[in-house]
Each structure stands twice: as C-alpha cells, then as structure tokens.
Amino acid sequence: MTYIYDNGSFVGRVWSKSEGGPLIVKVYEGFLYDITSIEVPTMRELFETGSPADYVNKIKGKKIISLDEIEEKIQNKNFYGDYNFLAPCDLQVIKACGVTFAKSMVERVIEERAAGDSKKAELLRTNIGDLIGSNLKDIIPGSSKAMEVKEVLIREGLWSQYLEVGIGKDAEVFTKSQVLSSVGHGSEVGLHPISNWNNPEPEIVLAVNSKGKIVGATLGNDVNLRDVEGRSALLLGKAKDNNASCSIGPFIRLLDNSFNIDNIRNAELTMTVEGLDGFKLEGLSSMSQISRDPENLVEQTFGRHHQYPDGFMLFLGTLFAPTEDRDTKGEGFTHKIGDKVSIHEPNLGTLINFVNLSTECPEWKFGISELFKNLYKRNLLS
C-alpha cells in the first residue's frame, strides 16, 4: 500500500499492550517506530524541542508494526490488538473554535430557533437560511462591514448569539475535551444517550506548544449533539464533552519544508458516513472558506490573557452541517449506532471511527496520574 506518510514528518501515539501504556511513534517507510525516550517521554516534550520535525527525522527509533497490519485491524474492528492507535496528543488541553464558517453559522442559528427540534429545522432553513447566509457572504469578522450587517439583522429580528461569535471581533473558543480523554484512529466515538439529533464534525486540529507556536496539524471529529446545544447554548458542555466524544488522528504532521501553515489554510477535508443500514453520506469542509485565519484563532486562544504550559490542540471548526434526510423527510441527518465515519485530507491521511453510545464505549480510565505512574515504571522520567 502507498501511504501519504512517505512524505513529511508524521508522529503519533499508540497503546502498547506489553508496556501497559503509550508509545510515541513516528512513521517511516510504512512502519511505526517507537521513539519514546527519557528525553521525549511525551508528545508535550517533543513539541517543546527547538524543531520537532528535525528531532523526529534524526532519531531512528525501534520498528514495532507495519501500517498495513494496524490498518487491517481497524477495518476489521479489532480494537484491542498488541498496538492500538491513541489520540496523537497527550498533556495538551483540547480546545475548539466554533461558528468559523458562514454555513455553520446559519445552521447554529437554525438549531437555536428550532430549540433542538429537527422537525422544525427544515422549515426554518427555508425561511431564514438564505436571508442570513446572503448577509454573511465574504464578511470579515469584527470589521465595520460586519457591524453594519449586525445592525441589519438586529432590525430584522434575526440576530443570534451564534452570529455574535461568528462575525464579531471575539471568536468562540471552548474546551472540547479533557487532557488525555480523546480517542484515536480506529476507536469508537460516543453519543450521549439523550441525543436524537447529532452529527460528526470533520475539522483540522492544530498542535500548539507552550509558547503558542503552531508545530503541526492533524484531523479531528468534534462529535456534536445538535438537539442538546440547540435547546440552550449553556448546554454546550453536555453537547460536546462526553465519554469518547472527541476523536483526533491518525497522526500529527509536523511543520517542516514539505508542510506549512499555507497547506493548513488550503486544506480540503472530505468525510463519508456509512451506516449498517446501507445509508451513505458524503460531505466536505474547505478551509479556504473559514472566516478567521488559523493563526488568528491561536492568538485568540493563547496570550498574556491565557497560558497553556503543556500546549494545546485547537479544533478550527467545520463547514460541514448535514441537512440530508436519513429516514424521515424533513428531519435531516442523525447518527445511528454502528456508523463508520471516515475523515480524509490529502496531506494528513484518514481518520476512521465507529459510532456508539458514550455509555457503551470503553470508559476513560487512563488519566494524567496513570500516565506518570506508567512512565515512572518504565524508567522514562528523569
């Protein structure tokens, strides 16, 4: 098999059954190499080196498994082999930006107006979607033009808290997931059992170190409960942060001579949802349509106002907001148990996950204390 990983500097994390804990790995010639060391026992430490890509390319590591073998296990839903993908981050805080695309702004307003009721959403989409969307086209957030549009929408009774963070000067930045709680490539992703209207959100995720420097990028699925958040924006935590509700991977591509911030700005994500019922949904998210530059979103997250000593991962938002009916006409899309979600970007690879209830996904038990106990046991702490 030919891998996009043959070009570029790719790093990740896998669970080692024999070590009872995580390994830091790099990709080289179709194989994963363990590069965990006392110098770099965590991804956090790798990001703090002067040049993470140079460090990774110079260190040889120990060959552990071929990508073909581990990918085959994923396709067969073998979640518990000798090596399994983890989210490629560890001590970083998981942050996310919302409402960063005009189309997603419209859908958030519709969710709010529908109070989380998917049956009402279709009518609202017809009545107000085009009107709001036409006003938001080519708007620069925080600009004088944006403020003029705000006044127009207020007069027409169409203003919303989502539009405030969509076109106002301040971006929406929230905590998506707890440190070490994200799942990786091939894992199950979880839906809270109370949700009946939900969807995947394919996104670019930046890897940022403690100095606020972007060191790489990867893919993420910001699993979203539209009915829960639609009832009240104050339920964002319940809609976003549940067991296995955040997926990141498969690898972080480090910035180097072959991959830079402009590749991120021009990323083209495609997504496929394949149901056990034969249903298939395809979507895309084009970073060229984002309303705020990735570097601006980092600046709004990190600075004198807020520090991240262990760095952070930053979801950049999505253009994707599915409206295609799955079962009942007018009720739009929602997940079913067993859905296979594949998110692809030519420079970053493919992130695959399988949908389940958050109460049925494996419980999150390996937190910060367990990580350091494991590293100590393996003599990886200085």
For this structure, the quaternary state is single chain
Number of domains: 2
Q: Overall 3D geometry?
A: globular
Mean pLDDT: 91
* CATH third-tier fold name of the largest domain: Fumarylacetoacetate hydrolase, domain 2
The CATH architecture assignment of the largest domain turns out to be: Alpha-Beta Complex
Helix content: 25-40%
Strand percent estimate: 25-35%
User: End-to-end span in angstroms?
Assistant: 39 Å
Low-pLDDT sequence parts: none
CATH superfamily heading of the largest domain: Fumarylacetoacetase-like, C-terminal domain
Using the coordinates above, name the CATH class of the largest domain. Answer: Alpha Beta
How many beta-strand runs?
A: 18
Write up what this structure looks like:
It is a single chain. The chain is built from 12 helices and 18 strands. With 382 residues, it is of the alpha+beta class. The chain has 2 domains: 4-99 and 171-377, Fumarylacetoacetase-like, C-terminal domain (Fumarylacetoacetate hydrolase, domain 2, Alpha-Beta Complex); 102-167, no CATH class. Strands 1, 2, 3, 4, 5, 6, 7, 10, 11, 13 and 16 form an 11-stranded mixed β-sheet that branches. A 5-stranded mixed β-sheet has the order 8-18-17-14-15, with no helix packed on it. Strands 9-12 form a two-stranded antiparallel ribbon.
